[in-house]
Amino acid sequence: MVVDDNDDAAQSLAALLRLDGHEVRVARDGMSALECLKTFRPDAILLDIGLPDLDGYEVARRIRAMPEQANVLVVALSGYGMPDHERREVTGIDHYLVKPADLRQLDAFLAGGRG
After folding, report:
1. Residue 31 burial (CB count, 10 A)
2. Which H or E run contains 46?
3. What is the residue range of 64's domain?
4. Taking the model in full, what pTM does it have?
5. Which residues are reported to carry the modification 4-aspartylphosphate (predicted)?
């Protein structure tokens, strides 16, 4: 799943993931992402931090509170720079990439899964 309010960025990343054979859903804000996760069970969520409603940290916290999403890989994508390690741990974000994301690194995270 790709969660990003920048439509061009979301669609471009989704297209690249589809080329690699992934099933992808796109959400434009945090609430839409959480709603989609009620029925969609992705292996990974690529989550923008700067969303218009809930920020990515709050979305990650809520995802981690969903028992059915316990094993989903959450990769934060942000133009804000790297957060401190404690903030990542508290929110349940597995990996953090600064935009534009290095696609080789992203592929490695997706291949490795959570943990």
Report:
1. 15
2. strand 44-48
3. 2-112
4. 0.90
5. 48
